[in-house]
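Entry for the shared binder. Reason: the reviewer on the internal report wants the predicted structure included alongside the sequence.
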Amino acid sequence: MYQILFPTDFSGASINAINHTIAFAKLTEAKIFLLHVQHPLIFPEDVPLPLHEEVMEKFYKDIPEELLQIQKVLLQEGISSEIINRYGLLIEEMENLCSTYNINMVITGTDNDAFNTIFGTNSLAMVEKMNCPVVVIPKDAKYKLPQRILYATEFLEEDIEKLNRVKFIADKVQAKIFIAHVNTDTKHYYDDADKQHHFAQMIEGTENENGYFYTTIHNENVTDGILGYIEKAEIDLICMSTKKKNFLEKLFKGSKTQKMASITPIPLIVYHI
């Protein structure tokens, strides 16, 4: 069974994302794990250990009403779910759960205007650290069945397996897939024809039911180029891949995918290569 992890802090962005999560769960016949994590309590040194245990036991028994309400909605929609209520560090708990439950996808809501908040920062950490795909849902993004999906690529061989995952979604909703590369060399407006042809040969035999549409976006800034194309081509869903970077790469290069996650106006799926 397909498994979706949905972390929530009960914010407006998080609640908005549940509508997208429900829709995706129906498409994939998935089970949803509802996760709420509170930071660990720090007890004064003079508090006896039995009291520590009593407080923790009460926490695990007292499931937040918001989680119960979300689970009730899922039940009404015919979706299987499980509540996980934890004390700890969110990203660490998520990494453990992804491994324990063989999670296929994480779906998180975020407020693009508040990416310096705790959950906003955690959303970026999910994009960076999770091994499974992460779906970022902007607070104001209303759910609609995606009909035009953009896959941003550097035409790498590693993109092929990720494109197959995009195809899995596209075939479910009869969507078109637009494969785009951003040319940042504005002095040389080449059209990537050779790269496109080679990439098309590599993915031969995996055609999307509604076809692949190739395009080259000309913009010296990758993020601006993609944002402009999203509006122009009326894209409903963005898919991008990212590599895990070491400290120096993060310091000097940053991440185009993380930047896109912080400002995207529409849902974004991040795959890791």
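Summary line for the report: The chain has a mean pLDDT of 82.
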